[in-house]
Amino acid sequence: MSRYKQGRDEPPRRGKGICAMRGNCGKKGMFGQQLPCPDDGDAEAPTDDDVDMLRDVCGPGWPIPDTVCCTKDEINTLRTSLQQAEPLIASCPACRNNFRAYHCSFTCSPDQSLFLDIVQTQKTDTSEAIKEINYYVSEDLKQGFYSSCKDVQFGATNGFAMDLIGGGAKNASAFLKFMGDERPGLGSPFQISIPDTRQGQDMPEFIQPLDFAPLDCSANEVAARCTCIDCPKVCPTLPYVSPPRDSNSSSCTVGAVSCLTFSALILYSVAILLGLSAYSWKLSVRHRQRRYERVALLGDPPLASPSAASGNQFDGTNSYSHHNLASSSPTSPGIDVPESARNVMIVDGDHPDGATSRRDPDASSGPSHSSRFRLGRGASLLDPIDQLQPRQNHLNIALRGFFYRLGWRCATYPALTFGIAALVIAFLNIGWKFFKVETDPVRLWVSPTSESAVQKTYFDENFGPFYRAQQVFVMALPPSFDDSLEAHEAFSNNNTRNVAKNHDLPTNNVMTYDNLDWWLKHEQAISHLRSEPNGYTLQDVCFAPAGPGTPCVVQSVSAWLGTDIKEWGDDWASQVEDCAATPSNCLPDFGQPIDPKLILGGAKGDWLKAKSLVITWVVGNSLDQEQVAKAEEWETALEKYLRNVEQTSAAEASVKIAYSTGISLEQELNKSTNTDVKIVVLSYLVMFLYVSLTLGGGIDSSFFFGEEGFFAGVTDLIYNIPVYLRLQKRSSTSMQSSSTSLASPGYKRTYMATLLPTLLSVNSKFLLGLFGICIVLIAVSSSVGLFSFLGVRVTLIIAEVIPFLVLAVGVDNVFILVHELDRQNGLHGPGSKPTQTTSPGSYEESIEDEMEVPSYLSAEERVARAVARMGPSILLSSVTEVIAFALGALVPMPAVRNFALYAAGSVLLGALLQLTVFVSAMTWDLRRTEDNRVDCIPCIRLRPAIALYDVNPNAGGEGLISRSIRKYYAPYLLKREVKQLVLVAFGGLFVTALIGIQRITLGLDQRLALPADSHLVDYFDAVDTYLDVGPPVYFVVQDSDINSRHGQQQLCGRFTTCMELSVANSLEAERKRPDSSFIANPPASWIDDFLHWTDPVLDTCCRVKKADPSVFCKPSDPERVCKPCFEDSEPLWSITMDGLPEGPEAMRYLRQWLNTPTDENCPLGGQAAYGSAISFRGDNSSVQASHFRTYHTPLKSQNDFINALAAARRVSNDIQRRTGVKVFPYSLFYVFFDQYAHVVGITVEVLLLALAAILAVTSILLGSWRTGATVTVVCSLAVLNVMGIMGFWHISLNAISLVNLVISLGIAVEFCSHIARAFMGAGHGLPYDHPSGRKERDERAFSALIDVGPSVFSGITMTKLIGISVLALTRSKLLEVYYFRMWLSLIVSGAIHGLILLPVALSYVGGAGYSLDDFDEEWVSSAMRRPADYEYAPFHDADSDLSN
């Protein structure tokens, strides 16, 4: 008899065979569980039924004793309690049997009194029951029990069983404490405390802690052995895979720098040292030579000049050649002329210094009185004919002939040209009827043939599109922002400006009663929100795992405790902590536990100090556009509601919200294209204005700045105002001077001042420039029409950028043509002697007829000559640009490919229109100018000025830029020392670029594509800061044979006969090395949960009718008519996979499992967790596809996303190689990051192909492989510098920057091609190794700079710089980073390489030149009348320097 029952106060009995509790003594409440009675009586022998029940409930891990301390009712209560945990741990026999043995010992052991100590009792409805008891357990048993269960997984939640049965305990004490705490559900109905039993701890007398040998999950026995998924100790070791390196890190380093940087710095330093050494040696040699010359002059008569003596040091040099070198010229850039040559050469009479030769008495007469002319480029008429004769290039002759005929016809028949062009343009623009704009982000940025796109399509077709997530972050504002709404707005604006600075986000605790109350009211309103006009609610569009009309998936703290905080009670904080600790005890309506990290952001385990509430509504997605339209309509209503909440949140609750809906991204991306319309339009207008105003720059700079120019005349007019007003008498000196001659400087200055209105109104080419711009826009429009007809969709980026790009690229052709026509007007314009050239198509005859200089040519002839001279150069630049842009179409991303196609088409059409229609327009404009008609108003004709002086208002002159390049820039650049410094400087730029290239990262932050004030910027910042989980990833298995045992073994992981590295086992093994695999959670293995669902031990899961086992029981069917599946199967159901379903039976059970709800009775039911994880074939005879769901580690940077995709593909390939099953990974972001697996290779491939094309085109069209190679190398260096700037200026490599690199290559060619062709056409054709070759190349480089340098600078460099500078005002980060920054870099890089490095490089290694003119007479006359040669040339006679 129990002493407790007798009411005695003596201490309870203790010893073997003595109980501590027994029987049931009522419930704590009406719905509570039965509580045990205190009882220190003797243990009693069980009945046979009790023994059978104990054997069934406690399992093989607990031997049945002869006597027990429990009754049949207690055994039934124990069975019920254990059944709640059974589905969670049944996959691991060791954990399951240890769990049962632990609880059976507590309930039925005959020696309870030795390890149980009743602390407190309580009154119940019928008697006195235990309220608290101490359960003494040995430390070894604690640790062994915990170890066997800590790694057991529960696939339905992608988590661990320990999260459910042990509250996520991290040690044995916490595990047992959690199970013993008084708690409904898996907890205890009364408090079971677990005292510390380690050695040295105080324990009551006679207490002996429970101690039995726990089963080890790695033991080789059926009752204990667990699989790899639940027991890491039995897992095989995977081959080592190193974690991915940071994109900026290098595998080879020397100290803090990479091996490449170290090698480049060493080589560059060595090269500089060698150069300095060679220069020092040369100086010392020159110094010794000069000492020798001085000694020679003192000792002997001066038979020869020092320079002649110095000229003898060049072996094999022709002393009578004008190409020899001398070092005594102080103004010549390192070019010396032999004494013998000096004696026959003269200096122009109009030399800036007025120098004349001291050796030639006729030198003072100047060019018009000397016996010969200096022809420029160091030539003279008395030079040997073999050196004077220019080399010819047959391709150049053919091209010039073709362009001459083209120009002649367009100039002669402008109306016909305009008519034909109008018809072609109209035909091309018909394609606008097929015009479509692509706005879908996936179709915009993802190639439909890419691996990820194909896999996404397969996933969508088999499992349905990924859910449409609507997510809100509720964050508390910092204290400084609590005072006013204005402060909140300031905070918000600051946050949007700092896109990637997460520290600007709120960091206060959001878990306060007021904040929760405020938000829950809004959440409740959202659940009843109706869309317009159809009135859809969340229930109509949400994802409901159990089927339509069932609870929606809403992940929020309200899913734990409800949307009415008043129902939470005063202890709401502890309830939140309990739910976060054991989500299975707070199941939401949709039946799946919620990981607290999904709804409480920034908590780091301290859930009541969470920095953000995270709320997610999961809306269903579908391939049915009607269903999508319903979802989008409700999302529109939600977006509007959240926008209003955002505006009032700070004032109402001192919180800030960040949100995103299913339609937000597409809307904001489309909005971003319209954000900077004003900026883009302003950029266009600035370029229009600049081109229109600067195109008519054919007025000589001396007209404005000369001694008798316009400004001098204006000064005289102002000075003489008092005289004109008769306030002052004219001085007698002035009167005498004025009466002397009308040619006095004063009268001439006055005449020049009065001539200005005529020059500005007539010589202006504003209308012509505007027409040139219109041609560019027409080319863009025609390109859009053509490609729209071909089915190539337009993107909004194309609409903004292509006109700007084509204008920047194509306007240089307009400048070059107009400037060349100005030059032709200066040579053959009005005032020249007329000729009889009337041939409409023979360029050769037109040259033969011109034997005297100057000669007047008709307007058509001058235009044709301008086109003939510049047409091949335009052809060269246009062909290379079109090829470079077209190669961008190799990039598979649709937006980029379409951009490249539209750009190539626009540039090609623009060039064609410029060489035809614009040529006709130039002819009309030239006729207007010579007819003195006002620009823009040609109907007004001005009276021509009286020609009192030798001034031709219509003749083209030398502008300020041209004069500066000729007088200062070109001579200085081509000095020997300057050229060497240029090579050193650009070598340093190359090394710097190599360093910068190594800093380039991959990726495109989606925030850059959004407007700066977009609400998604805040949302993405909040995701990075507060969301501590990564995106889900699905490993999709294709065409697996689930009907066969082998097919099941290829996938499963919870059975002992599964493949060692099956799909499930491989994913679990990869999870254990997240640094390499980026997998954070256990995989949701549907095959294991399905097969364990058939376990007859789980008698509440798979059930069939007793009367007809072929019929499944419903959840509502009573136990008396049902029995567990496979209860009587032969062979018996086993963890070895014996007795499990296969063949057609497997499909029948699988379909039933997918219809079984996931609830407390059967957590393994597949309806909620796996309802969309399996796709059957059309006849339902087999599985077509299935997926294993898990999660990535939190991904914060672009590099993380790229590496996660690469790791997932590696894992899939490894699984496929090991198992033979087709597997691929899928996550929502994969389609956007697929490009980065290939972007580096594509970049190298496209750039190399473009360089090869440039080399081929330039070598052929320039007629020299050496010059073509030089141009190609300079262009490649320009692109390398742009790439280096990308690294330093934080411009990532992606499809957009790749196209910009291709564009930079095309623009670099544009900077270089015109100068290169002018260089090739400016020389005599001397062999490369000719002793006089270097000086000849210097002179050709000089000539090229003064010929086309002004056009390159004003028409290319300044046009682009002015246009791109306006983009600095943009608010779009995408335009700022990838268009302003990158285009500014490529323009500056192209300009300095084309205008500085290329002339220097050509002067060293340029190919042999040829004449741009076809006959010697034209070449001679052209050289004689070249205006630039009359005033100054850098390579003139050394005697002119000596005369100074």
Can you characterise this structure?
There is one protein chain. With 1444 residues, this protein is α+β, with helices and mostly antiparallel strands. It has 52 helices and 24 strands. The strands form nine sheets. Strands 10, 11, 12, 13 and 14 form a five-stranded antiparallel sheet that branches. A four-stranded antiparallel sheet has the order 22-23-19-24, with helices on both faces. Strands 3-4-7 form a three-stranded mixed sheet.
Summarize the model shown.
With 1444 residues, the protein is an alpha+beta fold. The chain is built from 52 helices and 24 strands.
The proportion of strand residues reads: 5-15%
Strand count, sense and barrel status of the largest sheet are:
5 strands, antiparallel
Q: Enter the CATH topology name of the largest domain.
A: Multidrug efflux transporter AcrB transmembrane fold
**Amino-to-carboxy terminus distance:** 137 Å
Low-confidence region ranges: 1-8, 302-389, 481-505, 732-743, 836-853, 946-951, 1414-1444
Shape: elongated
Radius of gyration: 45 Å
Structural class comes to alpha+beta
Helix count from the secondary structure assignment: 52
Spell out the CATH superfamily of the largest domain.
Multidrug efflux transporter AcrB transmembrane domain
